[in-house]
Write a structure and sequence with these properties.
Elements (H helix, E strand, L loop, with lengths): L2 H9 L9 H16 L3 H7 L4 E10 L5 E12 L5 E8 L4 H18 L5 E7 L7 H15 L8 E5 L5 H15 L27 H13 L11 E5 L3 H12 L3 E7 L2 E4 L6 H11 L9 E3 L1 H6 L2 E6 L8 H6 L2 E5 L8 H9 L3 E3 L1 H4 L2 H14 L6 H26 L3 H20 L4
Parallel strand pairs: 3-4, 3-5, 6-7, 6-10, 10-11, 11-12
Antiparallel strand pairs: 1-2, 2-4, 7-8, 8-9
Helix pairs in contact: 1-2, 2-4, 2-16, 4-16, 5-6, 7-8, 7-14, 7-15, 8-9, 14-15, 15-16
This protein binds nicotinamide-adenine-dinucleotide (NAD).
The site of nicotinamide-adenine-dinucleotide (NAD) has 24 residues, from α8 and β7.
């Protein structure tokens, strides 16, 4: 860790812990700030979120018992606009994870030049273990517990791991009901990623995968990789992984191997991403898919491919896996998928990493389009959304490329620096109140 980053974290009272995800990501951001010469007071501001909200709320279960749930909403920074970021339902959600993801949202929105700050939320729950009714009551009670900590001009949640369009619909409906006539018109814009008939946007479901494809079509050819002939592997076959795979398939790329929480599969002649997505939708995972062979985790990472797309959870690529990965490029679909050890070893081995705040920014970008449509009471055509998304992602990828050239740095540092440059510029204009 650079001395200046260490001194910022220590001034804020952090006890140095290299295994802590928040400190890892904050350090990456602070190191990039130092490279840019961002004033120290801005480094201090950005190294902590503005608000950390924690709520405990009871929910009646189907058997008549009551269960207390723990939910979080972290609002990292709203310099550029309302807080924006997903809500995760997962049994292991912790305040540190949510803080990390909120910080990354601030960076992502700034990099893409969206008029949003960064936030993130989560509930400690395994949604697969609740009935549909329990899931709905648990969701509605969470939104009512958050109350006016969210709002269409203040903080706008979206889906993340374990949440989906249906859950976003319940969230928006709850918010409209609890705010009464005040938010009858605008209330629908309180969350994005909603179902299409209830204020959702064309293209939102595939947006993160689509954005990743638009980024790699700019960056891979420079690394000597062509989309129409490349091979790739995917970690995680949920929203991001499966859409990335389906869209890369349309470009002629070959999916050789996939791993998810149920197992790993491989077919050197290519796995049909559409068929696999249909299979996973039915069974819940890739395990048992008949048109590929079951392989071990080790074999998954050792399979030779041009590009690996991590699209599961944080910190999956650690030092051990980084040593055996047989890919030229890692295009990060998931947030913070590598440990610092993993990152260091990939760099030593010359494996290029295309960072998450760039590669997976398509989701929040189409969320921005959805929010705009809601506020203007409009509905845009799917083709217009794709065109606009391509424009935003190409511009962001070009910005990162220029920054990497200017500072002769890696793409992750360049992506954070591109975001921080914009944040620094706006702070310089606005100043610190009062
Ligand atoms: P999802 O819940 O749809 O899918 C998660 C996938 O991870 C599943 O396929 C699951 O099997 C897999 N997984 C879980 N544990 C695993 C393990 N131990 N080994 C291998 N695979 C495992 O989630 P998602 O929405 O696709 O999100 C994936 C990542 O992308 C997360 O980091 C999320 O924050 C990030 N992200 C998502 C969006 C979005 O629009 N959905 C946008 C930006 C970033």
């Amino acid at each position: 860790m650079a001395d200046s980053s260490l001194s910022v974290l220590s001034e804020l009272g952090f006890r140095y812990d290299p295994s802590n995800l928040y400190q890892q990501v904050a350090t990456q951001v602070l190191n990039s700030s130092a490279l840019l010469g961002l004033p120290r007071h801005l480094q201090i501001i950005l190294a902590q979120p503005k608000n950390e909200i924690m709520v405990h709320y009871p929910v009646r279960m189907d058997d008549g018992t009551y269960r207390l749930f723990k939910g979080y909403r972290v609002q990292h920074n709203n310099l550029l606009g309302p807080y924006k970021g997903g809500i995760r339902y997962h049994q292991d959600v912790s305040l540190d994870d949510v803080k990390t993801l909120a910080l990354l949202m601030t960076m992502k929105c700034a990099l893409v030049r969206l008029p949003f700050g960064g936030g993130k939320g989560g509930v400690q729950v395994d949604p697969r273990k609740l009935s549909e009714d329990e899931l709905m009551r648990m969701t509605r009670r969470f939104i009512s517990a958050l109350g006016d900590n969210i709002g269409p001009s203040y903080d706008i949640p979206a889906p993340d791991v374990g949440t989906n369009a249906k859950i976003m619909g319940w969230m928006a409906d709850t918010y409209i009901n609890i705010t009464g006539r005040i938010q009858r018109r605008d209330g629908v814009a309180v969350v994005t990623g909603k179902p299409l008939p209830f204020g959702g946007s064309e293209g939102r479901e595939k947006a993160t995968g689509q954005g990743l494809v638009y980024v790699v079509e700019v960056l891979l050819p420079e690394l000597g990789i062509q989309l129409d002939s490349m091979t790739y592997s995917v970690i995680g076959f949920g929203n991001v992984g499966s859409w990335t795979a389906r869209l890369l398939q349309e470009r002629g790329s070959t999916l050789k191997t996939v791993i998810d929480h149920t197992g790993a599969i491989r077919n050197d002649n290519g796995i049909d991403a559409e068929k696999l997505a249909a299979y996973v939708a039915k069974t819940g995972g890739v395990y048992g898919y008949a048109e590929a062979d079951a392989i071990s985790e080790d074999a998954f990472y050792k399979t030779e491919v041009d590009v690996m797309v991590p699209a599961a959870l944080e910190q999956m690529v650690d030092g051990t896996k980084a040593k055996i990965i047989n890919a030229k490029v890692l295009a990060e679909g998931a947030n913070a998928p590598n440990t610092p050890d993993g990152d260091r070893i990939l760099e030593e081995r010359g494996i290029q990493v295309l960072p998450a705040i760039l590669c997976n920014a398509g989701g929040v970008t189409v969320s921005y389009f959805e929010w705009k449509q809601n506020r203007q009471a409009e509905r845009w055509a799917a083709a217009d959304i794709d065109d606009e998304l391509r424009r935003y992602m190409h511009a962001a990828a070009d910005r990162v490329k220029q920054m990497a050239r200017k500072h002769k740095c890696d793409m992750r540092t360049a992506a954070f620096s591109t975001a921080l440059e914009h944040i620094g510029e706006v702070y310089a204009i606005r100043g610190i109140f009062p």
